[in-house]
Structures are given as C-alpha cells and as structure tokens.
Batch of 4 targets.
Target 1
Amino acid sequence: MSRVQPDADHAAASRRIVRAAAPDLCEHRRVTHAVLDAELSPRGHHLPAAGLVVVATALLVLLPPAAPDTGPLIAVAVVQLGLVAAWVVATGIRGFLGSLAIGVAAAAGADAAVLLPDRPRLDQLVVVLGLAFLAAVAHQMTRPAPRRYLVASLAGVLLLVSCVSSLAVLLLVGRMAGGTDTLAGSVLVVGVALVAQHLVDLLLPRPQIAEDVPRGLLGLAVGVLAAVVVALLGRDGADLVTALSAVTTGTVLGAVAVLTALAASYVVAEQRRRSWALPVVQAGLPLAAAAPVVYALALHVGS
C-alpha cells in the first residue's frame, strides 16, 4: 500500500498539471491562428501594390503637363515622402525619428540640387549623398546603448537616401529638351510593366522563383513584354531606327522595373504581416531604380 499510494498521488498531480496547461495550449492555438490570418495573402501582396503603382504613374504622367512650373516637383516629392515613411516603417529601422528626418532632408536636398542650378548636372547629387551618409553614421552611432541592429539600420537608411536621391533624377529629366514628354512616356512604360507583372503573378506565379515569394518567371517576362509594347506604341516615327530605339527603351526600363519589384517582394515576404507601408515600398522602389536609367536613355536618344 505504501508503494501504490505515491503512484496514485503522482498520477493525480499529473492530471492536474495537464488540465492547468490546457487553457494555455488553447490560447497558444488561438494566437497561432490569428497570426496566420494576419499573414499577407497573394491578393494582399499584389493588388494594393498594383493600385499604388497606378496612382504614382498617373501622378507623374499627368501632373507635370498640367502644371509645368510646380507639377514635376509636387509629383516627385509625393513619391519621395511616401517612400521615406513606408521604408522606415516596413523595414523596422532603429532610430525611427532620426531615420525619417534624414530621409526627408535627403529628398529635399536632392530636389534642390537638381532644380536650383541654371545648368543642373547629375554629379551635384554627390554632395547630398555625402552629407546624408555622414548624418546617417552620426545618427546610428549616437543611439542609446546597446545600439542593436546598428549595421542593418545604417544600411537601410543609406538605401533610403539613395532611393529618394534617385527619384530626384526625374526632375532632371523634366528639365531637358522635350523632357516632359520623355518623363511621361518613360514612367508610363515602367508603370505598365509593374502592373502587368503584379497581375500575372497574382493569377499564375509560375515557375515560382522562391518559396513564400508569390513571384514567377512568367510575370517577369510579361512585365518586360508589356513595357516594350508601350514603348513601341508611344514612339515618334515609324522608321526602323525609331522602332529599335523604342524596343531598347522598353526592354531596359521593363527589366529594371520588374527585377526591382521582385526584390521588393522579398522585403514584403520577410515581414509576414499586413502593413500599409508594404505596398508603398513595392510601388516606390521600382520607380526609384528606373529613374537614373530614364535619364541615361534620354541622354542617349538626345545625343
């Protein structure tokens, strides 16, 4: 009897522990389901971003001709400020307010460097990039200890500075001879490529490029093809040289846009949560990457 009683007491204690832990297990199950429900679906991954691409494209295409003096600056500044706020929120950069301030200051400085000189040059943006680099390093180094994720946060701020400075190049394109038409046509090519890629990847992301990233090679190909078609439809002239130039422009801009959009999708997939900032990043990053290419192509065509 003395040996049976401890065993019975032990079994009863085990049952009480299991019953006590059951609510915690159920709660954990409910939390797990809630987290899964909050994860981004393919529809949530693509449709909001495609909608914002349409809005940004319309803004950059329609506003400069409607208001030649202030339209280009307003359109570019809206995209820049949206990307600054969204990038800091989406990536979780440490030093939130300082990162926002550096991004806004870099955008303003880049726009001023392009608009204020009588004869603006692309190398004038180097001053903005250099000052922003020093400000970003000082900001991260002066954060309170233990300064976790310092290198990652510094890299994130510097990428943001590069993006907003790159968007300012669109203002430089607008100041070239025939720049308003070049800007509108190039942005339209990029916008159509991005929307086509999003829609194809929503319906048929095959063959899938990476696990948990709803992107496929078919979307890349269709995006570039759509860019080429838009460039051909918008060309001036029907001769062979003009057609080849349009094909080159569409291929290059389309490739830059869809590859950058793919990279932005990796950022979104890593977050695994819904956020207003993610579609803004998906729309803004490809435009920023394409801006210097637009300028280079404009110089090539004009030469």
Note: Residues 1-38 form one domain.
Target 2
Amino acid sequence: MKKHSKLALVCAVLLLTAALLAACSGGGSDSPAGGQKVITDQLGREVVIPETINKVAGTHVYGGKMLFAMGQKDKLGFQMQLGADLEALAKVDAAYGALPTALSSPNGTDSPEAMVSLGVNLVFTDTFRGEEEANIFTNAGIATVAVSGETFEEVYQTAEIMGEIFDCPERAVELKEFIENMRTMVAGRVANLSDEEKPVVLISGSGGVYTAATADMFQHQMVETAGGINAGADLTGRWAKISAEDIINLDPDYIVLGSSFGADTVESVLADPALQSVSAIRNKNVYIFPSTLGWWDFPLPQSILGIVWTAKTIHPELFEDINIKDTADSVYKFIYGYTYTELGGTL
C-alpha cells in the first residue's frame, strides 16, 4: 500500500514539474515552435522574433535612437547614419566607432541585402512608411518591427515592445520614468496658466518657415506641454504647407525653426518682407532649436529636451533655475552613456 502511495506521489510531482516547465517556457498559441516570441508591432502586425538576435538596425531616426535609449548599442550591426549625435558617438565610443559604416562595408548598409551580409536579422522601421517598407525587409528574411513615436504614449509603447524583444522590461520602465519626471516638472510649472497667458507657437519643419507642425505630430504635444498653443493645431498630416497669409492670420507670438536643415535661418525669417506684421517678427521672437547633436523637436528619446527648452524660451520667468546644458548632459548620458558635453555638443 505504501509502495503504491509513494509511486502515486512521485507521478504527481513529475506531472506538476512538467506543467511548471511548460508554463515557464512560454508554451502556448502565442509562441511558435523553437521558443520564438511573437510580438505585435505599432502597425498591428504580428512579427516572429528570431530565437537568437544576431544584429539589429533601425531604418529611421526614431527607431534607431530608441535602440540606444533601450540599452541595445552592443547589438547594432553597423553605424547608422542618423544624425550628428551618432557621428559624435563614433568618435568617443571605441566599440561603436569600430562598427562598419556605409563606406567601409563592402555592400554598404542601406539595403536589406547589405544588412543580411552584416548579420542583421532584426530591423525597426517607421510606421509612417507603412507595410510597404516593412515588407521589403521581411521579404529579405529579416524580422521587421514597425514603430512610431508621435506621442508620448507611442514612445512608451515602443519601449515596451523593445523591452519584450530584448528581455529588458525594466529598461522600458526606467525610460518612461525618466521622461515623465521631466515632463511632469514642466507641466506642473505651467499648469496654472490661463489660455491668454499661453503664447501661440509656430514650429516649422524641413520646408522652412512656410511649413507647420500639425495636431498629428509630436511637436503639437511638445508645445502644449511647454505651456503654449500650437499654431498648427487645426491642421493635419505631417508638416502642412502654409502661406504668408496663413502665418499672418495665425499671428504666432513665437516662431521656432525645428528640423529645418538649413532651409531657413533666424535671420532670413526676420527679414522676410511678407511677414513683417507678424507678432513673432515684430518682437524678434524667432528661434531655432539650439542642439548641435541631433534634433530636439523630432519624435526621439532626447526630444524631452525640446519640451524643456521650449518652456524656458516662452516662459523664462517660470524656468529661471533650469540650466539647459546640465539638463542636456543628463538626457544624453541616459541615452548614449555619454553627456552632451562629452560628445562635443554646444548650445
């Protein structure tokens, strides 16, 4: 009798152990054979993630910079040509600087075939470019995850997706907390402003002053968080084209040249004869984001700096104690492991 009891107990333990192992291995309908993960990207596509991630890349500035923010620099397959901040990083970080470049790699880096030759088996694309771009890499055998960061919520969703893929959910939490601490600081200081105390701010893009950030863009949330009113709040799409008459009617109190890539300068906007009646021109409140190391108004992890800088620019009396250089140092240190100053940035 005792032998049968012991045998039954052993069988029960074995069955329980097997059940626990199956649960810990993630077995189930949401994981294909071989232990691979299946995630849903920000286009709503189900993507099978390779069991072993060899090398990764981002085809767009947002996805590429998020890889750094999520601590995945060591998994990059090559130096991504995504701005002055990464060019500066290659000069101070030996490991990143030693990675292949578009010029040093025999096949280049800007095609799926080139990425495959460099060992890349996971790439992050831009949702704005849709399934068409994603399919180009998928058809080449590269797992492709589309991401977007036009709102804080989308940035945090990207972080969660990357946290799941790279088994670092705690970093996603750290990133959200880091950004939210600064965002909350700014929002708290402008919370009691009336609408009359909030200046109208025109954020211009790659086409120069005759383009406007719309309600569909990250810059809209940036201006509102900073205690301003986005001049393009009633516009849709990306970088809406506007005329001199539109700007006169909007009559912004501030004009900020963001990702203008030299299309306009502060001086050229101030001298534009068609805009001389605009408040921002008359009061010489025309600015450009001061960073020499990457954009602060683009959907990027470091764009929290765009919020802080905008808030200090349009409400200087509320942010007298905020040192932009020190703030930039802390943000770049969090993302890249080097301060803005160490990377050679100036304001």
Note: The domain at 193-325 is CATH 3.40.50.1980 (Rossmann fold).
Target 3
Amino acid sequence: MSEWQLSGASIFWGLVGLGIAFGIARGFVTRLRDNAHNTRLRTYLDGRDASFKAGFLTGRRWLASFIAEAEQARDRRDDYLRSKSHPARKSAEIVKEVKQEKRALAERLKFVEFQLKSYEEYFPQLEEYRDLILDERVPLSAGSDNLEELETTDPSQLFLSREEWEGLSASERNQLALDRYVARSKSDWEIGRYYERYLGSLRETSGWVVTYHGALRGFEDLGRDLLCARNGAVEIVQAKCWSRSKSIHEKHLFQLFGTTVHYRLANVGVKVTPVLATTTSLSEVAAEVARALGIRVDSISLPSSYPMIKCNINLSTREKIYHLPFDQQYDRTQVSRQGECYVATVKEAEHRGFRRAWRHQARRAV
C-alpha cells in the first residue's frame, strides 16, 4: 500500500471518528438540555397540581400567572437591543420595564376573566342579568343592591335599539325582541336551558304539570331538570342536549337513578319513572345500564324554534298574562289549566286576550 493510500485512509477514518465524537457530544448536550427542560416542566406541573389541589381559586391564579409568563417569553425585544451589533442599552431597559408592566397586566386580566367565569359557573342565573348590568339604559347605582332595577327593567330592550324601542308599539317591540332572542347565538348553558324548556312545553301541552327544577334550583337541582306530574304519577327528566358526536355514558344514568331513589324515599307510594331525554345516543354500556335500572330513554331533537310564549291565567285574579322566554317569571310559570297554552307569536297571544305583565307593558326606556 502506498504512502498516499495510507494517508487517505487515515484521513477517512479520522473523519469517521470526528463524526462519531460529534454525534456523541451532540447527543450528550441534547440530553442535558432535555433534562433541564424536563426539570422545568416538572416544576411547573408540580406547581400546577399543588395550586389546584389547594382550590380552584388558587389554581386559576397559577394558570393566570403561567399564561402571562408564556406571553412574556414570546417578547424578546430587550435581548435583541442588548445583543445587536450596536447595542441600545437604554432602550433595552425601557422595553424591559414595559414588558414587566405588560406581564403584570396580563396576569391580572387573565385572573379577572377566570373570576368572572367562576361567578357564572356557580351562579348561572347571572347570565340573565349580564347584559342588563352593562346596559347604560338601566339605572344602576353604586352602593345599592340594584335588584329592583334589574327585575323591573324590561329585558326586551336588550334586543332593540333605542330608536326601535321608542318608535315601535309594545306588541311590535315584544315580537321583534322574541325573534332576535331565538335567532341569537347562545352559550352552552343557555342551549341546555332552551332544551329543558322545549321538553317542558311538550309535556305541558300533553297534560303534565311541569316544574322546571333545573332552571329554578341551578346546581342544587339534584340532577332533576324537570319534575312532571300527571294522574298521581311522576316522571323525573334529565335533559342532555349534546352534539351527536358525543355519547351518553353510564355515570349519567347512575346519577339519574340515584336521584330517583332519593325522590321515592321522600315520596313513599308515588309511582316515579326516571327519564333521560337526549339529542344524542348512549354508549353500549350506558344502554345496558338504562335497561337494567328501568330508565326510559327519549331521543328528542331540539328545533331551532317552537311556540314558546307562555299564556297563563292568574289563579286568584283570573288575569290572562303572557310571558316571553327572557321574562323573569318564565320558568316559574306553568301552563297546566284550562285556557292556558303556548303560542308562537305576540299577535296570537293578544288575540286570545292575554297581555304582557304590567311592569313590562307600560315601562319606557330609561
């Protein structure tokens, strides 16, 4: 073998050795970097677990801080100003101060968002007043509970402009507000209540006396959305208005069965039937559980609209009053006696001799 061939082979194997050494070194550095990243991640996750274990409020404070820190990590302008070819250190300090203020504001904003979300989760009735509270036409004042103002303000004005409110007749205002209420986008909670009301209307028009237990009791409804009574029998209805892509699982059947047993113990001798009304299907196991526990499953779709104006006759005064779905007493109003009914339009309600509650009939925009 010639000297040139030996030299070439040495170079080749030298390069191979350097490549192997470089690969090992790179893998070692990558492992160190990954270990450091995993340690930081583990610290974050431990902090998250500890915070949420202490309580949702503490957990949401942690999450607000984490989001604000993530936003800060995206902003590296001060690093660039310091490290560029002609550093601008004074500008970098100013940018750093702005970033710190931005992070603090972002954290406070995110926590306020979580705080408001908590209020709506634990007190979903607040959604009924949310828009009224922010409407400048409602005369609210600091230092007062403002409950009377909220309860006596006609909620139909939320769906109308000032010009519409002042220019239309009461009947026209009420119908336009109803049309817009039906057409507007709704939160998941509102869709759930919409479904419960639809199911209740079907029952009431079939002769059942319906108590809208879920709407009236909120989180204390014990899993009973509707209590329906007729001829000495009671049906406890749990409503699930879900996307068809989701399935009902057995835990929901167990809850319904449990609340049915609880009701039977408190009402001995009453025939009680548990009913699950849903827009979607049950899992295979859930279907077996429903059959075994004697739970009837009603598959009922939710239409985009239905006759939802409640025409009620006052038991003591015999006054004929109609209620729109955004009126305060709507869920407390039952349609069960002769002459009471559901109608689709304000014109039909008034043609039947019903009027809207006085406080919503004559009150003008404030």
Note: The CA atoms of residues 310 and 342 lie 5 Å apart.
Target 4
Amino acid sequence: MASINLKKIIMSGSRGNERLSGAKIFAWFSLLIIILAVLAASFINVPAGYKGVIISSPTGPSSTEIDEGWHFNPIYAVSDIEVIRYNVQTRDMTSGSTVTVRSADNLNIKMDISLVFHISPDKVADNRIQYGDMTILIDRYIRNVPRDVASHYNATYIGGDGRGVVEQHIRTNLTEALANYNIIVDDVLIRAIDLPDTVDQSIEAKKQAEQDMIAAEYNYETTLTNARASADAQIIAAHGEANATVIHAQGQALAIAEVQAQLAKTYGNNSSISYDPVQVYLTWLYIRALSDPNSNVQYVILTDGSGNPIILDLGAATGSGTNQTAAP
C-alpha cells in the first residue's frame, strides 16, 4: 500500500514540473515578443522632405525635429510621433473650397486660389506644438486675406486689367501674415475668377472698345503714313521734273550758243553774203521743228520768190503730203 502511494506522488510531481516548464516557455516567448515589439517601435523612418515631431512622450513634447532617414531611440516606442511635411507644397482653394470675396462695389466674386509655400525646417516642431495643425492655420489666412484685398477694388477691375495687381496684393499680404508662423510663401496664384454676368459683359464691352480704338489708331497712322509717303513722292517727282527742265533749258542754251557760233564762223567773214544771225538761227529752228516727228505742224506756207505762195501739207503720217500752189 505504501509503495503504491509513493508512486502516485512521484507521478504527480513530474506532471507539475511539466506544467511549470510549459508556463516558463510561454512566459519567455511572450517576453521575447514584447522585446521585439519594443525594438521595432523604437525605430522610425522619416521620408525626404518631412520632419518627425514628438507630440507626446513620458517627458512631454519635444521641440527637436527628427530628420529624414532611419532613427532608433527606445523613447520612440512610448511616444506619439507625427511626420510633417516641410518642403515646397501647394494648397489649392478650388472646386468645393473656392474662396468667395466681396468687391468694393458690393459684388460677390468667386476665386480659385493656389498657395505655394514651405515651412522653415528648424521650426516644424515649434509650429506643430504651438499652433497645432498648420493646414487649418493656412486655410484660415488663404480665405481671409483675399477677402480683405478684394474689398479695396471694384469687380470690373478685379476681373479685368487689375487681376495682376490684385494677385500681387494678395501675395504680399499673405507673405507678411504667414511669416509670423515661420511659413515662407513662394507664390500665390489666382487660377480663376468667376464674376457676375453683368460684370463679365461690361468687361467684354470695354475690351472690345479698346480693340476698336487700337484698330482706329492703326488705320489712322497707316493713312497718315501713306499720305506722307505720297506727298513726299510728289515732291520728289516735282523736284526731279524741275531739275530736268533746268537741265534741258541749259542744254538748249548751250546748243543755241553753239549754233550761233558756227553760223558766225560760216557767214560772218563772207562779205558777199548778207548775214543776219537772228534770221539764220530762226530759220534753223524752223527747219529743226519741221524735222521733229513729234511736231504738231500740219501746214506750212512758203514763197517761191515770185510772190506765189506754196502750201506744204505735213499732216500725212507716211510723209507723202501734197504740195499745192495757190493761184496768183
């Protein structure tokens, strides 16, 4: 009987050892998993263009940014970390988030606006801890600043010639306002302006009038230029004609002088010939005129020396005119 009880005690003890060993294995295995989980949570990877910010931890938030790349710190395992973008980015106010502004003449205008900005890399943690979500802050200013600017301009100016001025005004004001939060404005773009129909029609009419005025000025300048060119051409032609007349007259004078000189040589020293220089020269001009094909002389009346006139018909184009002698 005693031997049987001893055997039972030994068997029950071995079972207890087996149960204890299983519990130890489970405990060690669980501890290993916890350690691995803690180690994994102690690693953080920050993408390029972003900064890691510890929002909460056993020691509180941290104003020191976690730079790009892989980092290991056991405190990360028990910390709340946000990865925040700081490089150049665009915030669009389009479609459902279009900005509605009121002009100086009390007209509602819808604007699609884009803000291009970046955050100072060494101020990302300070901004997040002090101001919270930067997107909410940026949206507040990207709505309020255009409304304030638009109140200084009429709708026709905003949608017409003044669009660039208004855009620059918004850019300047946003740059000054967001600089207080370490946000650097790179650009502000007005992508679209939706005006009331009456204002659109007014702007189109103004542009058409300006185009008509430009066309009228161009036509006027063209007409004036052509008139000046025509007048200059006529003046040049008149000068040319006058010069030609002067040159022709000078040539005629030289020719007359030469003919008179030749006649003087021929008849001047011959005492047997009655010489009248003027009469001889006029006779020479008369004969030259008759031989000129452009002469308008049709009939010439001569004398044969006996008193009977001789009529020469020079009107025939072939030069075969008839001679007629008048009755005495």
Note: The chain has a mean pLDDT of 78.
